[in-house]
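Hi R.,

Here's the chain you asked about this morning:
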Amino acid sequence: MDESSDFPLGDGPSSGISVTLTAGTLHAIRERVGKRGVSAYLERAAQRQIERDSLDELLTDFEKINGPADPGAVSDKRTRLTGNSASESGTAA
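And here is the predicted structure, written out as tokens:
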């Protein structure tokens, strides 16, 4: 397959690669999806990670232009969106 071809995330022909995982990670994946679901599970995980990386890059660019977000405003918006404060959900603002 020509890896230089431009396909949107999650599109295009499948291509086999070799991936090395720890035994515990592979066992946990197989427990969730069975032997035949591992490739699809890893595909979805890779797509989510790429999306997260893209969001991190977007936030970094935003902060370069606008400065860091106000922690109080972030906490207030989190509470409005989720109904939980950061301390209740166990996450930091």
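One quick note: The two ends are 44 Å apart (CA to CA).

Cheers,
M.
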